[in-house]
Design brief:
Rossmann fold, 9-stranded mixed beta sheet, binds xanthosine-5'-monophosphate
């Protein structure tokens, strides 16, 4: 769907920088649609997409080195505004006849910045502000036609522009939150300089998407892999709105779901639920366990689970008769992280994308959410009237507990992680509810003074409340003592992260008393577990899941 959207779009050209997805997100926050493409994308292809603007991202290389990622100089002469960020800025200068050199000291971190407030790129930005710098190389001489529009103590050209040519170069990173005015700068670029009207909104997306699905599917039949997670649920709702009972949702219980989750999914999407669709539940636990037996390599496990999924769908499809489309809840970060969109290395092959076998018994794949970020998917979910509880449910990966059991998988290990995870979730929910109770009584007390503000505060959640949290089973067994007996049992790891976009994350600061309660319940109630760890790792360097 992404390729033919007849809408205003900005292209983010990826030079391998770590923030490429963030750039795209920030642009979308300005209600402007954008997509990420590798710097290897041919100029012709870029031209054919008729972008309103182009952003070149950062990257790890030095632009003057042999073999460094580069671009066709024509890119800057197409009459389309171009904004280069960090590496992109240096490359623009280098290609157009400026000079980039290695600095003696790396400029890194929060840096005071002075901007030319008359420059359109900095409209509304205070003259003195701060930015996030991360570079070794610097622009030692600007390309002809450029003027410096921002500087720092060590960097005379922190930003440069050639207004006439519509070219802009920024040495720092406006896309990260550490550059407080960065969003405004990007907004100035895409809305004012590129002239995008900012009509990319989720209600419009839902309407347009429903229209496209109807057009594409005709009277065909669609089979959807429904996991009960946010992505596939929103995909199901969108498809159900578009084509009703032409949609069959197959919910595969692969035996790697959270405790009781199978029944919960059935309650929402099954015949007793509120959606117009055909719902089939397949209890395939044993099949998956057999296939996974003895396998401990993470990527192999992911592939096995993904492939087995497709096999189950194929079988269901045969039973149903003619099926024309296989629908999936793939979202944009899955596409990019799988290395299919931009330039980034394959970090994990996501279940939704990576596990597709060569032989698929369907006419076509349909992925209605392929262009959306997670927060956009949630907005669409709300537009379609999916209950908030489901829309804001924490993410659960396609391979499920399969990637939360480090090493090989057995039914027994699944039971341990399910039970531990259920306890963890129960206790976090309890602690959060207590916090809210205390907080709202406080708010009610204040209500005489500032009623609306107090009511607003009552909606808040504790600062430690994680955006995603779960138990994982480590492959570590250790000696312990329980009663008078020696034990040699498994260790559970508790993971809890605070994150805005799931691309970067920090460990959540859950009160120690809550962790202690969870620990003691797990050790007392979950047979086979005698130790509990709390994972402090942020992302990067860790990922949120363990495998
Ligand atoms: P990582 O582990 O990559 O996770 O930091 C980022 C977010 O993605 C979820 N995740 C997945 N979701 N299929 C999915 O649909 C997958 O294979 C998968 N792997 C990770 C993870 O739970 C986190 O929210």
């Amino acid at each position: 769907m992404g390729q033919n959207m007849e809408k205003e779009r900005v292209l983010v050209i990826d030079f391998g920088g770590q923030y490429n997805q963030l750039v795209a997100r920030r642009v979308r926050e300005c209600n402007v649609y954008c997509e990420i493409y590798s710097y290897r994308t041919p100029l012709e292809q870029i031209r054919e997409m008729h972008p309103k603007g182009i952003i070149l991202t950062g990257g790890p290389a030095s632009c003057y080195e042999e073999g460094a990622a580069s671009c066709d100089p024509e890119l800057f002469r197409m009459g389309i505004p171009v904004l280069g960020l960090c590496y992109g800025a240096q490359l623009m200068q280098h290609v157009l006849g400026g000079e980039v050199k290695r600095a003696e000291n790396r400029e890194y971190g929060h840096t005071d910045l002075t901007v030319d407030t008359a420059a359109p790129l900095f409209a509304g930005v205070p003259k003195e502000t701060t930015c996030w710098m991360s570079h070794f190389d610097y622009i030692s001489k600007m390309a002809p036609g450029f003027t410096s529009i921002a500087h720092t103590a060590n960097c005379p050209v922190a930003a440069a522009s050639n207004e006439e040519a519509g070219l802009y170069a920024i040495q720092f990173h406006p896309e990260v939150l550490h550059t407080p005015e960065g969003s405004l700068m990007l907004r100035n670029f895409v809305r004012d300089i590129c002239g995008c009207s900012g009509d990319w909104r989720m209600d419009a997306f839902a309407r347009e998407s429903i229209r496209r699905i109807r057009e594409k599917v005709g009277d065909g039949k669609v089979l959807l892999a429904l996991s009960g997670g946010v992505d596939s649920s929103v995909a199901a709702a969108l498809l159900s709105r578009a084509i009703g009972k032409q949609l069959t949702c197959v919910f595969v219980d692969h035996g790697l779901l959270r405790k009781n989750e199978g029944d919960e999914v059935e309650a929402v999407f099954g015949p007793a639920g509120a959606f117009d669709l055909n719902f089939i539940r397949v209890n395939a636990q044993d099949r998956f366990y057999v296939k996974l037996a003895g396998e401990s390599e993470p990527e192999r496990k992911r592939k096995i689970i993904g492939e087995e999924f497709i096999r189950v769908f194929e079988e269901e499809a045969k039973k149903i008769g003619r099926v024309d489309f296989l629908a999936q809840g793939t979202i944009y970060p899955d596409v990019v992280e799988s290395g299919l969109g931009g330039e980034s290395a394959v970090i994990k092959s996501h279940h939704n994308v990576g596990g597709l076998p060569d032989y698929v018994d369907f006419k076509e794949i349909i992925e209605p959410l392929r262009d959306l970020f997670k927060d956009e998917v949630r907005k669409v979910g709300l537009e379609l009237g999916i209950p908030e509880k489901l829309v804001f449910r924490q993410p659960f990966p396609g391979p499920g507990l399969g990637i939360r059991i480090i090493g090989d998988i057995t039914a027994e290990k699944v039971r341990m992680v399910q039970d531990a995870d259920a306890i963890y979730r129960e206790e976090i929910a309890k602690a959060a509810a207590e916090w809210t109770r205390d907080h709202s009584s406080q708010a009610a007390g204040n209500a005489q003074d500032h009623s609306s503000q107090a009511a607003g505060n009552a909606q808040e959640r504790p600062a430690w409340m994680p955006d995603q949290y779960f138990a994982a089973l480590t492959n570590v067994r250790s000696v312990g003592v329980m009663g008078d007996e020696r034990t040699y049992d498994y260790a559970i790891a508790l993971r809890a992260v605070r994150t805005v976009d799931f691309m970067t994350a920090e460990a959540a600061d859950i009160p120690f008393s809550v962790l202690q309660t969870v620990m003691s319940r797990i050790i007392n109630e979950v047979r086979g577990v005698n130790r509990v760890f709390y994972d402090l790792t942020s992302k990067p360097p860790g990922t949120i899941e363990f495998e």
